[in-house]
Design brief:
This protein has helices spanning about 25-30, 45-55, 60-75, 95-105, and strands at about 1-5, 20, 35-40, 75-80, 90-95, 115, 120-125, 125-135, 135-145. It has about 150 residues and is an alpha+beta fold. It has 2 domains: about 1-60, Ribosomal Protein L9, domain 1 (3-Layer(aba) Sandwich); about 75-145, Ribosomal protein L9, C-terminal domain (Ribosomal Protein L9, domain 2, Roll), CATH 3.10.430. The strands form 3 sheets. The protein has a 4-stranded mixed beta sheet. The chain has a 3-stranded antiparallel beta sheet with strand order 2-1-3, with no helix packed on it. The longest helix has 14 residues, at about 45-55. It is globular. It starts with a strand and ends with a strand. One of its GO terms (biological process) is translation. InterPro entries: Ribosomal_bL9, Ribosomal_bL9/RNase_H1_N, Ribosomal_bL9_bac/chp, Ribosomal_bL9_C, Ribosomal_bL9_C_sf, Ribosomal_bL9_N, Ribosomal_bL9_N_sf. GO terms for molecular function: rRNA binding; structural constituent of ribosome. Keywords: Ribonucleoprotein, Ribosomal protein, RNA-binding, rRNA-binding.
């Protein structure tokens, strides 16, 4: 099955890539989750639009990417969430929460799509998130999840 990826899929490709996958993988995983769309002859225009959007989103200047990586590696991001007495969160810390806190801490924009978590964060503590700043530049970000004050 030939598909166009609409999102980055680990070990498969990035958004805008045309990939060939087994029918079951495409039909049961990629298409229902919106990670891909079927490839057609007229889909080249869509591929070009996604490539242009990706170019606008990514940091093209490698020096700026290295500067942001260094800032993220040194930063400690604090996310405050409501938690129970045993330290379990009511909900989870999302990549959006981390991106907002990192943007505020570092002073430079961090996109939620750049952040990868090893596992969902559902309790108080200290965690490490990977931030893919550029195709060739990855940062490690320390995330401290703290209890939010009661209202």
């Amino acid at each position: 099955m030939k598909l166009i990826l609409t999102h980055d899929v680990e070990r498969l490709g990035t958004a805008g890539d045309v990939v060939t996958v087994k029918d079951g993988y495409g039909r049961n995983y990629l298409l229902p989750r919106g990670y891909a769309t079927p490839w057609t002859k007229g889909a080249q225009k869509q591929i070009d639009q996604m490539a242009e959007a990706r170019r606008k989103r990514s940091i093209t200047d490698l020096e700026a990417a290295h500067a942001l990586r260094d800032a993220l590696n040194e930063a400690v991001v604090q996310v405050k969430k409501a938690a129970g007495e045993n330290g379990r969160l009511f909900g989870a810390v999302t990549s959006k929460d981390i991106a907002e806190a990192a943007t505020e801490t570092v002073g430079k924009p961090v996109d939620k799509r750049w952040i990868t978590l090893a596992s969902p964060i559902k309790s108080l503590g200290s965690y490490t998130a990977k931030v893919r700043v550029h195709e060739d530049v990855t940062a490690s970000l320390q995330v401290d999840v703290l209890r939010a004050p009661k209202k």
